[in-house]
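Sat 14:20. Reprocessing the chain from the morning session after the first attempt stalled halfway. Input below, unchanged.
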Amino acid sequence: MAGLELVLDMLRRLQSDMREVKETLREHTRRLGHIEHNTAQQMVANAEQSDRIDRLSERFGRIEGRLDLRE
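Finished this time. Tokens:
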């Protein structure tokens, strides 16, 4: 009977360890999701900024053309 109790005790410890591993994995998955979300937002912001810079460049080009400042 002592052998059976030892095996059951080991299985309980393994089960407890597995719960901890699963909880850690859930936390890491959640944190990775936040990182991916923030990265996507930054990419959108960079694209918007690039678009604004392109429009400003076009406007400066038109202004230079009107003032005959082109090289």
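The longest helix spans residues 2-66.
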